């Protein structure tokens, strides 16, 4: 079966992600206790099921410790298993809880302070949840949903769900440094030293996907050299990441606004590696 385990920080978009997987044809189960995972997989096999998506969160954190063993068992049975971990910056999570007026799953867990029972603040709940799920995050493909619209998250989740059984998916992502480095980046490269098309009035409204911007940057000797250096670095170390049994490698390219230079580099890198690797690309600041 194709199995996707969806977990992560509360408020990061797991409900949106699970709905996207359901729309993609996956049989979905929300908030499954981890000890029931193997039984569920067995039941789906008896029903000749081909896909399964399971959401797990901090409410089952105490039993998530056995998840690595469950993953090893599933893969030993020949299943195609992906683990997606959704996260976001703390200020984004606080804003979402404020908008929805929902309480954090851990907010109902009280603690004793100076002989009085107190409730955790939202920030404390988020911090505790990150600590509880840190071990799971290390073995997952991380998706940073900070500032991300629901329709973009749905598109990204569906793109990951459609990936085949390639040993590693190479994911290139453009971003703007002024909005922060993506939390899901494995490798980060800074292209802000290159001439900025933003200062050319004819190029300002365009993006790195447009031919005039591409021609402008291709004519810059520094841009050509930097692109070759990044390409060579990724090509050199890609076998090491594959040998580390990684399912995904996210290469993030950043510039000031995330519209011209970083987009151009991501497009060029994706085109170069697409002939030999399974490649996905994202442009965080572009709708």
- Give the helix tally: 10
Termini, distance in Å? 33 Å
Total count of strands:
11
Spatial order of the strands in the main sheet? Answer: 2-3-1-4-7
Regions with little confidence, pLDDT below 50 for 5+ residues: none
Return Rg in Å.
Answer: 21 Å
Backbone structural class: alpha/beta
- Described by the principal axes of the CA atoms, the overall outline is globular
The overall average pLDDT, rounded, is 89
**Sequence of secondary-structure elements:** EHEHEHEHEEHHEHEEHHEHE
> Approximately how much beta-strand content do the residues carry?
15-25%
Q: What fraction, in percent, of the residue positions are helical?
A: 25-40%
Give a quick account of the main beta sheet: strands, pairing sense, barrel closure. Answer: 5 strands, parallel
Task: Give a summary of the structure in a few sentences.
The protein is an alpha/beta fold.
Description:
It is built from ten helices and eleven strands. It has helices spanning 14-23, 37-46, 67-76, 90-100, 122-132, 134-138, 150-161, 211-218, 221-243, 261-273; strands at 2-8, 28-29, 51-55, 80-87, 111-113, 116-118, 141-144, 169-176, 187-190, 248-255, 278-283. A hairpin with a 2-residue loop joins strand 5 and strand 6. Helix 1 (14-23) packs across helix 7. The radius of gyration is 21 Å and the shape is globular. The two termini are 33 Å apart. The mean pLDDT is 89.
Write the layout of secondary structure elements.
Elements lengths: L1 E7 L5 H10 L4 E2 L7 H10 L4 E5 L11 H10 L3 E8 L2 H11 L10 E3 L2 E3 L3 H11 L1 H5 L2 E4 L5 H12 L7 E8 L10 E4 L20 H8 L2 H23 L4 E8 L5 H13 L4 E6 L4
Parallel strand pairs: 1-3, 1-4, 2-3, 4-7, 8-10, 8-11, 9-10
Antiparallel strand pairs: 5-6
Helix pairs in contact: 1-7
